[in-house]
Amino acid sequence: MSGIPAGGTWFDTINRSFVDVPINGANDNGISTTEFLEAAESLTTLFDLLGSAAFAPVKNDLTGNIKKVRERQQAAPGESETLQSLVLGELKTKKHVAAEGLVWLVRGLDFTAQSLRHNINNQSKELSDSFRDAYGRTLKPHHSFIIKPIFSAAMSATPYRNTFYAKLGSDSEKVKAALEREVAALEERVAILKAFQDRKEAKW
């Protein structure tokens, strides 16, 4: 638990929380690109806590898609303030590298959110059950027969529930509150992006 402040949780050590990712309700629920990508990067380090090399492909998948979105933001900063405007701006150029990257990033974050939500709501369940359940409902339907075994191996490599929660902090009530807050914020932003991606103008 190195790096966690006394009486704090792992969530106190990350660079950006999804709680701090602005949503512009006055502008089509626009989600701020810079903060969202920072929060997504921070969340990928959660897979390091799971302590298995089997999770490297899951983390690499997320970071690779973050990179695609960020490269578009850097190429056209003026129209990339929100993720929605970034996607619509790129699609006007007849390209969809970042738009597709964001689709996969949202799927990966949805998988993460659903895994953690399942585990929060089912306190007798081990992480492997929660991750397997969420994988079946999020990423698995989109994965090829080559990728599925790689991700399935990761689902089976999760540590015991108690081991994982202990890595998040020594005060279980604080950990529970911080995890609930982060997951709720992630769920809200994933839901907004999924609704946006379902719209005709966000497709290619």
TrEMBL record:
What InterPro entries does the record point to?
A: GLTP_sf, Glycolipid_transfer_prot_dom
Coiled-coil intervals? 169-196
Alphabetically list the UniProt keywords: Coiled coil, Transport
The UniProt entry, under Gene3D superfamilies, shows: Glycolipid transfer protein
Start and end of every Glycolipid transfer protein domain? 31-169
Superkingdom field: Eukaryota
The family database entries (SUPFAM superfamilies) matched by this protein are listed as: Glycolipid transfer protein, GLTP
Q: Indicate what this protein is called per its UniProt record.
A: Glycolipid transfer protein domain-containing protein
Species per Swiss-Prot/TrEMBL record: Aspergillus cavernicola
